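Standup notes
- HV: blocked on the assembly model, inputs below
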Amino acid sequence: MLHIPAPDPFTVFGLPHSLDLDERTLEQRYLKLSRDCHTDLNRASDAVDCVAVLQRAAEINDAWKVLRDPWQRARALIELRSPGAMERNKRLDAAVLAAALELAEEVAFAGAAELPRLRERLQQALAADFVTVRAAITRGDIDDAARRWHSSHYHKKALADLEAKS
Amino acid sequence: MTSPSVPPAPRLVVGIDLGTTNSLVAVRAGKGARVLRDQAGEALVPSVVCFHPERGLLVGREAKAERLACPDRTVFSIKRLVGRSASEVAAEANSLPYRVVAGERDLPRIVVGDRQLSPEAISAMVLQRVRGIAEAALGTPVQKAVVTVPAWFDDAQRQATKDAAALAGLECLRILNEPTAAALAYGIDGKQDGTVLVYDLGGGTFDVSVLRIDDGVFRVLSTAGDTHLGGDDFDELLAQRILAQLPAGPDPTRHHPFVLQSVRAAAEGLKIRLSSEPRADLQLDLGDRGQATLTLSRAEFEAAIAPLVQRTLDCVVRAVKDAGLQLGEIDDVVLVGGSTRIPLVRARLQALTGKVPHTEVDPDLAVALGAAIQADVLAGNDRSLLLLDVIPLSLGIETLGGAVQKLILRNSTIPTSVTEEFSTGVDNQTAVDLSIYQGERELAKDCRRLSAFKLRGIPPLPAGLPRIAVTFLVDADGVLRVTAREQRTGVEASIQIVPSYGLTRDEVRRMMLESIEHAHDDYTAREAIDVRNKAEALVRGTQKALQLAELPPDQTYAVQKAVKVLAKLLVAEGTATATLKAACDEVSKATATIADDVISSAVTKALREEPQS
């Protein structure tokens, strides 16, 4: 089951619940938080404090893992806006599955010469997927955002298969 | 509490590189770090322990020197056995001259005479020697250390290393990954921002890590490696060639400890020469077990090791890919470990990365130097640096059907934690069993089972109703900690951990009380008795001899004086063994300087008449 830890990653970083975060700012923030809170620089004498410092450091690392990746960030945001949305919208309709299957075959049978063009196509498709997810979140249709998030999985999978091939 | 205006006195934490072949210790010094040396000026302590039948426990160079004389009592490469099971190391143990058997819970035990020792205990002896060198060099007790391990070490191997440190009387503040330590040694002030690839080929293990240095923050992006690939394997390939030159004989001869140790030593020498010379000759005389002559060119050697070198390069490619980078994005390549002295290794790595590898820091010392820097950070003396490391292998739990559900993915920055909910399968169930696995494979049988957890104290409720939140937290050492809480009642479920490898907590506690201190005490006690017996015999013997030999009074006086001192010390309470030993030497000196012919023979005769104890 998907588990969004409490406090959520945005809160850990002291940032608004937003999909659009500047990556460089995010990274700077991560480094600063790490410096401020890491166990190495904050060795508490008390055993209880030690665990608390350790948990805080883990929280920061785990939040960074989610926030740095736009797709993970989107998923966290969807769950925050409507808990359980990801699980509720897992079933995809037949048309999406058929297209996914076709894509998988295309990747499997593609010759070396076709790979660069196929890669570019998939990357563009993923970028387009992200735009639709963002749009759904913006207009508040979280269930649609979750569905679109799930269906983008097949583009990611095809791209991963393609990279494994080359 | 210290008030913030008064800076606390610097606390001492040393950095220890506990290597497969050699170990060493370093300490922060100014902006950098320095290795600590023994009285002979040596920094490297061979990670070798010899249980000498007469001389007792020997560690380091002294032990290594005995490896041919006492092949079955000299233990080396123990790092390859630490944190593993006897079955896992069985094949390897076969080619070792000392005996390894399966003990309780299939843990390897090293057999020396009538004693059986855990790999942790052997490692502890090496650590204790290293600690002694640090104490002598610094003139102060050393109780805290950062100890390095290969990045690719799993949970069990890390825990075993921590246990070894505890057995050596050291509080291990951090288990630090070797390549990360090396990166610290290179980018000491963290001013040089960039992406660094550390290639660490040691005696027994290979690691590669990709790091980003960002304003004093050393962030590991990925790590890959092989815990069983290193200089020892190159030696083994050469050893096979040498063995093939020996006359065909019965197998027991080939497996004889003396033959194995001699061939290994010869192979290592050959390898080292081939790193600087185009060809090398070997003539090995094993007495009645035959002779081997071999001429090997560097090209032949390189052809033999090429597949192993390729394996390291595959790891490099994987690590760079896992870091989400292209090879071209690596700014610097750093070499660590003695085996990076092999020209082929350097050439192939340079060809792959397109970068001339850095070799400014001695590859044997870099890890210890980096450990010393991190030690100083942990001591609270330096707040300018920060290390963010990763877990090398994924952690998961076994689910129905023997599959592994990954909870924490490899290359996750540590500390990291994940909380998972579990429930019960039958009504009024009050305990749940969980098995933790580490590895990348999908099925439990292909991963390493780290430990079994039993959650107890679950409130008796209908099946499926309890909600037990189990938190898996990997600390900064890369070691897993598990806590559990029943969500409805808030009851903290108790957890009983049975590690699959290494020692249980109780065993560590017990051994800390017994093993090491005792091993030392036993040896000290035995030595004390030996010296006392010798002293008593010397007093009686010399007195008798003085009666037998007619000596001029001035000469008798010198001897008598020395004997009297010794006799007095023998009667006195709590005379130190060393003092007694010194007094014995005085008597011997006194008798030696006078009328050797007369008195020495008389003493010898008198001593011979002493009943043997």
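- HV (later): unblocked. The helical segments of chain A are 9-12, 23-37, 47-68, 70-81, 85-88, 94-109, 115-138, 142-165. The mean pLDDT of chain A is 85.
- Next: hand off to the docking folks.
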